[in-house]
Amino acid sequence: MPPYTNFPNGITSEGLPVLTSANIPDGQVIFPLALPGDGNITSPSGWIGINNGNPLSPLHIGGLEGTPQSGIAVGRNIGWLADADGHGISTVENFTTIGRAYAAYDDQGIMSGTGNYNHRVSFQARPIISNIGIMTRVSHFDSLLDTTAGTHVTHARLFYAQDDRAVVSGTVDNVTALYIDRFDPTKATNGVWSIRQVGNDIPAWFDGMIGMGMQAPVAQINIGGARSWSSWTNTSRMLAVNATTLTDTDGTGTINQRVTALSLGQSTLAAANAETITNAMTLFIQGPPQPGTNVTITNQWATWIAAGKSYFGDGFNVGSATVFGGMATIAGSLSAPSWTTVGKYLTVIGAGVLTDTSSAASATITQRAVNSLGITNLAASNAITISNAHTLYISGPPAAGANTTITKAWAIYAANGDNFFGGAVVANAVPIPAGGTIGAGYLFSTVANFGIFFGSGAPTLSAAKGSLYLRSDGSGTGDRAYINTNGTTTWTPLTTAA
């Protein structure tokens, strides 16, 4: 080992010549130095240059130019790195016992004065890369973690920003733990990302609220803010889940359920004080899109399912949030422009075409329904008797409301075609009225009260001329049936053969 010198009181540049290759004998080295106690290497009035005869910074390492604004400047001309990675500044420590925190780099600079500063950066990277071949990766901050067996780390944070140690007085307008300025997408060939996580099985954890397009989120994920994009169709610019392929890597057999795009769990709503929530929902849609400047919307939809079946495990309401009658309930008041035969509560428009894609040519189909109601089994926990059970129940015809007169109200109106009833048709399921009742019977055409009526005893009701009356208690050939002869209450008996 070449000789070296110990300096018990440190080395100072005062009164000593500048150490250069001219005044250091061959074979002599100044380092390593053994500095006992509080000995230091000091330069009160000058700067230190290592491999640099004209230092431009307090500590200037290497031959390239430094700047007076830098506390430590490292500048080197580096050729081919064939054997190992290169580093501008490298710290390698070996600790066996440490009682408190350790920072390999610690910036505790103090800025004071009355002037205005443009910015203050603890770490700044501005590399220039030119005239090279393919570089696999360029990272301004590259963090790796290597632990050995027996190590226990409670929280490994490769990048950590905290404010619990901050002492703030005065005014701080905005505090951002990680701020990413806008990237110009034209500067990359294959894509520009502000944040990219590689690996589809690595979760991301955010305890706070995330605002996308807005500065003051009020939910864990809050999307908002006005935006402008080039024209688009059915891929949303606010939240989109694109079509893709999801591959099960270990499942076997029959899977009861599997979700592909979006799942919403069942949340529990709690409160510090007693409260009543009138309507609670897992998904809330305020309404359909509204037309803005230079836009006309022909049809506004709050929800559009382009294809596929939809399953509702419990039920759904249309038009009312307070009336719930079963698995599907339509209720509530509605205002709409004038309409005719297209209903405003429930409409099945027959303008479409239903095409059979499987029957053989010339096949005969016994029955085919456009709309159908199946047979439902009614059960009960205890023995009960149901007097009247219905597959379809219509409570009555439409009733006239404000400013409306209804000439003829129909509970069912078949505008065209024959009607087939496989079972009995009961008109007015009421006890047989004495003398008949207007409206209790079968009516024909648009003529008022023209039809077939029924009752006990001779007819007394008023009906259209030519109407028939069937008597339930007739006892002879001249009192079993009657025909109206004047359009009011005059009925003439019909003589029967027996």
Describe the 3D structure.
The protein has a domain at 426-498. Helix content is 0%, strand content 9%. The chain contains no helices and 14 strands. The strands form 5 sheets. The chain has a 5-stranded mixed sheet, with no helix packed on it. The chain is elongated, with a radius of gyration of 45 Å. By secondary structure, the protein is low in regular secondary structure. The chain has strands at 11-12, 41-42, 48-50, 59-61, 72-74, 210-212, 221-223, 316-318, 328-330, 441-443, 451-455, 468-471, 481-484, 491-494.
The coarse silhouette is: elongated
Uncertain spans = 1-16, 26-40
Strand content: 5-15%
Helix segment tally: 0
The side-by-side strand order for the widest beta sheet comes to: 10-11-12-13-14
Largest sheet features = 5 strands, mixed
Report the structural category: little secondary structure
Distance between the termini: 145 Å
Helix content: under 10%
What is the H-and-E element order?
Answer: EEEEEEEEEEEEEE
Give the overall pLDDT as a whole number: 78
Based on CA atoms alone, the radius of gyration comes out at: 45 Å
Count the E strands: 14
